Amino acid sequence: MNAEPVTRHSRALPELRFSLNLLYVGRLLLGMSTPSPTLEDGIDAFDERIEDVTDELVATELLHEAAVLAGDVLPTPELPPVA
Questions:
Q1: How far apart are CA 9 and CA 29, in angstroms?
Q2: Are 9 and 60 in contact (CB under 8 A)?
């Protein structure tokens, strides 16, 4: 079994992906509402936050990949043998 190496950036990746998915769901639900001038401000705020989280996710993924390539991985604990 070939598991993904664990780096100090690994823990942030699932949280960022989950946050991005929630933002997309919120944006979708907000877009399904009846149009109004204040709704456009809300959609713009969601779009800006989606862009910010996407940038952070991409940067963290690049840091993770760079750490893997540089060999800066965390030791994985030994699992007991399965009986």
A1: 31
A2: yes
If DSSP codes are grouped into helix, strand and coil, which group holds residue 10? coil
The answer to whether 8 and 70 have CB atoms below 8 angstroms apart is no
Assigned token pair, 69 = 């390539």
Contacts for 56 with CB less than 8 Å, ≥ 6 apart: 16
User: What pLDDT, in 10s, does the model give residues 42-74?
Assistant: 888 889 999 999 999 999 999 999 999 999 998
10 neighbors 64 (Cβ within 8 angstroms): yes
Task: State the CB neighbour count (10 A cutoff) for residue 39.
Answer: 13
Distance of alpha carbon 45 from alpha carbon 26, whole angstroms: 11
Q: How far is the C-alpha of 11 from the C-alpha of 70, rounded, in Å?
A: 18
Amino acid, res. 45:
A
Question: How many CB atoms are located within 10 Å of the residue 61 CB?
Answer: 15
SS3 73: coil
